[in-house]
Amino acid sequence: MKLKSNMLRRAIRFALASAATTSLLTTTVMAEEANQTKAKADEKVEKIAVVGSRAAPRSVGESPVPIDIIGAEDMSKAAGSDMLELLKGSVPSLNVHANPISDAATLVRPANLRGLPADSTLILLNGKRRHRSSVIAFLGGGINDGAQGPDISVIPSIALKQVEVLRDGAAAQYGSDAIAGVMNFVLKDASEGGSFSIRQGEYYEGDGDTTVIEGNVGLPFTDDGFANLSFQYKEADATSRSVQRPDAAAYIGAGVEGVGDPAQIWGAPEIKDDISIFGNVGVDVTDNARFYMFGNYSERDVKGGFYYRNPQTRPGVYSNDGGETLLVGDLDGVGVGIECPVVNLTDKNVANIPAYQLIAADTELGRNCFAFNEILPGGFTPNFGGNITDTSLTIGVEGEFKDGFLEGGFWDLSGSVGRNESRYFITNTVNASLGADTPMDFSPGKYIQLEKNFNFDVSKGYDFDLAYDVNVAAGLEWHEETFEVLSGDEASFIAGPLTEQGFGIGSNGFPGFKPSAAGEYTRRNYAAYVDIETPFTEDFMMGWALRYEDYDSFGSTTNFKITGQYHVTEDFSVRGSISTGFRAPTVGQANVSNVQTNLSSGVLVDSALLPPTNPVSEQLGGTELTPEESESYTLGAVYRSGDLFITLDYYNIEVTDRLSQSEKIVLSDADKAALKAAGVPNVDNLAQVSFFTNDFDTTTQGIDLVGNYSMDMLGGYATFSAAYNWNETEVDRFSAITGDFKVSRLENDLPKHRGTLTWAQQWDNFSGFVRMNYFGEYQGVHVDYDATAKTADATITFDAELTYFATDSISLSVGANNIFDQDAEELDFFDATGIPNNNWGGKYYETSPYGINGGFYYVKATYTF
């Protein structure tokens, strides 16, 4: 029978109380009962999702699209200190790579949902769009090259009530970026109680020592509201999964001083002073309206490694002819005064070469001639890092219309602002053009991402003589996105007196941003949508969504989505969706320029990333960026019988005009001349250029299988959970500036099969879980070099945790991830004696889906009040 008006009002009040800070457009509450653990006193509560529908919060079984709900307890059952690590154990279609020696991608790690890049998943916080990070993953491991997604790692698990993962395209509902799906992070809203915990752990290798201190407290905010506050502080030492490079070992053997062992580090970065503070406030301001506010302040320092600079071959510093002769600076000028000798590099130790001894001597000639071996005889390895600051604030009011033609409907008005700043630093390096006067530490500049949103949403149920009221929702959105580049300190970009003699300009490895490259770039867009849900019968429901967006840069786009669910029996239903979507190029992707050091075919070179509309980019095939467009459909089934719950969903996502970095194009002399004319620094030392481009189409398809079963067992209560994902991407179209190897990385780097099987057990005084993680075959790649690629073996890892409830308030836990210390796939570039002959110092393939660091164990103490 239909819901009457008094029932509707009670449903709205329930939605306001349970999710006060979300943009729910609620007409009814659809809740079912399910068993929880004994720790919850056998309460009957269904998992309710607010994402994916503009109507009621609904159970995951009643959703026409697949949704995962990861509760606060589930997120606490993992050793990782990063939200991405916590989620990938629960969502098999989510992949996260470690990114050692990957420029800014080391600072903010991108994640992949359903095989698509990080910025193809929309991130929401309490139902509101989350701003993206200022970090662009210039070296994103193939699939994420050039991605600019939000920084999920700043969100502490202790602040969350649950995470909702909508595994379906939703651009017609939420706008740009929702091609792969949506993640909604729901903050806790309790007005009392809380918890504090401390966790300490390290890897089995004895490094990566990690400390996490976190707390949450709920407070009353007047008699009709709450203020829920959370914090997290963490620090993590760096790890090293490296072997000595053969060239560095040869220099040590020759007696060269100052060569590190290992000279180059592959591992997790060092994280210091990582603090996140989140607040969530809600209060009734009238009988039918509620004020809400939430936001965060987060900051951390991250430092990682770079490639080793060989003291006889590094261009622009030690040699410009591949190690034939030493690069020597004539301080009084070439052809003026004292002439510097040519130093032929005939010995691994330049100190043994007579011509170099003349340069190094305290004589008139020696004081006039300079080589970097005099101050850095063993070469050097830069340390790259950054200070990441993330802030946001959302304020809004929501409530019920009391009169007029929308009487009984629901409204929500909100505004939000988010800002992410990445200030880069690079140490233990040189601006070679300054010679011996170079500093060793530099601040190359900053990127700042600033976003503002205003939303107004309305919803009302209408009686069309169907099974229930038809929910009609509509809304408006205004969005402004600004990307700002701030120049670095002068020493990081200045062309010093030795420039004309072939010495490199700017801080080696990451040159600073020149004032001419600094600037502020802004784009605005507005959107309007309508979303209708029609319950034709009690067993058959369909949803319809249409969204129009207009951008002041590239124009407008219109997208739709149709969903449906039919209950074949009381226990079994089928569901599906069809939709179109889009992802607008970010302002940063359209305007950023950058110089980076990378390995190309095994050789260390400098590469410039230029805006696609730069004349040099256009000369090489670049054009103005346009939105990616997608067409997707899903078809699935839901089965529920007692304590058994199973969902099976097939998905197919076609994306055209995908955005990514082009292949790095080798520069000709004519290209270099054009670069110089455009004001690009250090052109003579640049080997390659890349730019963002809409240059390929893909089809991604897969299957998600999720099952849960609960039962009394072993004198306690047991829950068994299984999840499996098959995901396959095929590149349908690409051009030469994408490249065959890029295609291979897109299609093969991620495992096509992922699965988890978890047994969680609850007793009166103990609880615990064991999780098996399956990772199928994947393409092992190192240093983005096609010659390293191989098919790596499928692997199984195990996680486990045991918790003892010492009192009603105190619990003690011990656990481990990768408990049997399963190593990643080892590089094949080793000779018979076990010495690597790849010259890059790595031990494992960096594309390992379970990381390269091995087993991690931890202990944790929690106080709950």
From TrEMBL:
Residues 1-31 form the signal peptide. This is TonB-dependent receptor. Belongs to the TonB-dependent receptor family. InterPro entries: Beta-barrel_TonB (IPR000531), Beta-barrel_TonB_sf (IPR036942), Plug_dom (IPR012910), Plug_dom_sf (IPR037066), TonB-dep_rcpt-like (IPR039426). Keywords: Cell outer membrane, Membrane, Receptor, Signal, TonB box, Transmembrane, Transmembrane beta strand, Transport. It is found in: Cell outer membrane. Residues 382-819 form the TonB-dependent receptor-like beta-barrel domain. PROSITE patterns: TONB_DEPENDENT_REC_3. It is a multi-pass membrane protein.
